[in-house]
Amino acid sequence: MVMRSKKTEAAKGVPLGSTYKRCSCRDPRTRRELGKSCPKLARSDHGPWAYSIELPEDDDGERRPRRRISFETEAAAQKELDLILSLLAIPKQGDTKSLTRIGDLIAEAIRTKQPIPDVDTVRARVRPKGGLRDRVKFGAYLLGWLPGRKGLSRNTRRSYESHIRLYLVPCLGDIWLDELERGDFKLMFERIEEFNDRIEEMRNSRDPEQRALVRYRRPVGIASMHRIMATARKALNDAVHIDGLIPSTPR
To answer: Sorted alphabetically, which keywords does the UniProt record give (predicted)?
Structure first.
């Protein structure tokens, strides 16, 4: 018994995708995997659901059939397939450059077993004249963002620079800009609190060398933490409204 596939077609000529069920049972004579032909697949508890999709050709014109086999239900497989088809429908008619780049994103996510990027994130990266804006990490964005800021007072620029150098880049710099979450900032402030505790511990040490190491170090107060967050918020707002790199600030 072969489980029937459910086929879905996106707009603008995007190839068909389908969901199906398969397993790793083998034919007792040939030892080959039965795959979608296993008679036990009619049972709800036998075999995972999967989807297959023909992604747009890569830069070399090579076909890119892809599949993911990891879903407990057909609905879950169909949901991810629908997301992929929605992504492939984003580019305007004739924008093959964007279509190829979006195919690259999807293929890489499937290859590395990572989540498929959401529609808002990908749509924000599509350039008006085709292609996608580069994906950047928060640290790299901050280091390029500050020099481009015009009209800042000397003190404001110095404050932004210290927040970026001492806290934002060391704590959050390796996170992709479009993957930042509020929880990441919570962890940063927890690290700052640990830093404060360490300073206090060294100041109260009986070892004069330990006390000397923190002679000119001050704990980061609540007001300073608010200013650090304000710097991050300003940069993220610019990433949304000026650079169009992310659809919204972290929620």
So the answer is: DNA-binding
pTM value is 0.68
Residue 145, pLDDT score: 96
The angle subtended at Cα 193 by Cα 138 and Cα 251, nearest 5°, is 40
Domain ranges within the chain, ordered by starting residue: 6-125, 138-241
Instruction: Tell me the one-letter amino acid at 21.
Output: K
Closest C-alpha to 146, from 134, 158, 136, 133:
158
DSSP states along 147-194: GG--S--HHHHHHHHHHIIIIIHHHHTTSBGGG--HHHHHHHHHHHHH
Return the structure tokens found at 15: 């190839």
* Fold of the domain spanning 138-241: DNA polymerase; domain 1 (1.10.150)
- How far, in Å, are 91, 98, 103, 114, 233 from residue 129 at the CA level? 10, 9, 18, 28, 29
Q: In this structure, which amino acid lies at residue 228?
A: I
Is residue 134 within 8 Å of 105, Cβ to Cβ? no
Q: pLDDT tens across 137-187, in order?
A: 999 999 999 999 989 999 999 999 999 999 999 999 999 998 899 999 999
Token pair belonging to 221: 């107060």
Distance of CA 185 to the CA centre of its chain: 16
Over residues 58-62, the mean pLDDT reads 93
